[in-house]
Amino acid sequence: MAKKDDETRHYGGRGDPVRSMELLWGTAQPPRSRGPKQGLTVERIVRAGIEIADAEGLAAVSMRRVADRLGVGTMSLYTYVPSKAELVDVMFDRAVGSSPRQEVEGGWREKLTAVARSAWDLYQRHPWLLQVMAMSRPPLGPNSIADYDHQLRAVDGIGLTELEMDSVVSMVAVYVQGTARAAAEAASSVQATGQTDDEWWSVYAPLLEKVFDPEKYPVAARVGAVAGETYQSAYDATHGFEFGLARILDGIETLLTSRH
C-alpha cells in the first residue's frame, strides 16, 4: 500500500530543497553545454512533464518518459533537474501559474466565488495536481505564493483577522480539492471500467429493483428518484461543487453579519 501511495502522491521536501527553490525561482546558473546543443531548458522539461501528467497522471511521469518525449537521453535531463521530486515541484508551480487571476468586480462573495471556480477549473485541466499534497507542504514557488496572495485579497478588509483570512481561504481550497477529487474519480471510473454512467445504471437498475423495497426505505426512494432524474447519474460533480460553495459562503456571511 505504501508503495502504491508513493506512486500516486507527491510530497514536498523529498528532493534537494536548495535545488528545488533554485528551479522554482529561476535563480540557478544555466548549465554549461558539453556537446551538441539540444535546445534543452528547465521550462521545456517542465512542460513535457506537465503534458505527460495531463494525459496519463502523475505516476506516469519519470525522467525517462520526459526524456523520451523530448527526444534526448535521460542522463541529459539531470544537468537541469536532479530528480522527479524537484521536477514535480516546478510542474505544480507552473501549472498553478497557468490559471488567470482576474480582478472581479463586486464584494468579497463574488471575489471568493471567482477564486473557487478558478481553482475548480484548474483541477479539471490538470487533475494530477490533486495528487500533490500541497496543503501541508506546498511547493514554495512564485506562482503558488502569488495565488495565495490573490486569494487573501478577496477577503482583505472585510472584518476578519489575519488568522481568519487564512482559515477562510484554506477552507475554500480544501473544499474545492475535495469536490474536484470526486469529479476526477467519477471521470476515471469511466476509463477504468469502459462503461459510461448510463451503461452502468442500465446493468444495475434491474438488479436493484429485485431487492430494493421502496416502502422500507421511503426517503431514499423519493430523494434518489428526483436526484437521479435531475442528474441522469448517481452524482453531478458540478452541481455538488456549486451547491456546497454557496453554503460555505453563506456561513462566512453569517460570521461577518454576527459582528455588526
UniProtKB/TrEMBL annotation:
Region (Disordered): 1-22
Domain HTH tetR-type: 39-99
Domain of life: Bacteria
InterPro entries (alphabetical): Homeodomain-like_sf, HTH-type_TetR-like_transc_reg, HTH_TetR, Repressor_TetR_C, Tet_transcr_reg_TetR-rel_C_sf
DNA-binding region (UniProt annotation): 62-81
Compositionally biased residues, Basic and acidic residues: 1-10
Keywords noted in UniProt: DNA-binding, Transcription, Transcription regulation
The keyword Translocase appears for this protein: no
PANTHER family: HTH-TYPE TRANSCRIPTIONAL REGULATOR RUTR, TRANSCRIPTIONAL REGULATORY PROTEIN
Protein's name in the database: TetR/AcrR family transcriptional regulator
Lineage of the organism: Bacteria, Bacillati, Actinomycetota, Actinomycetes, Pseudonocardiales
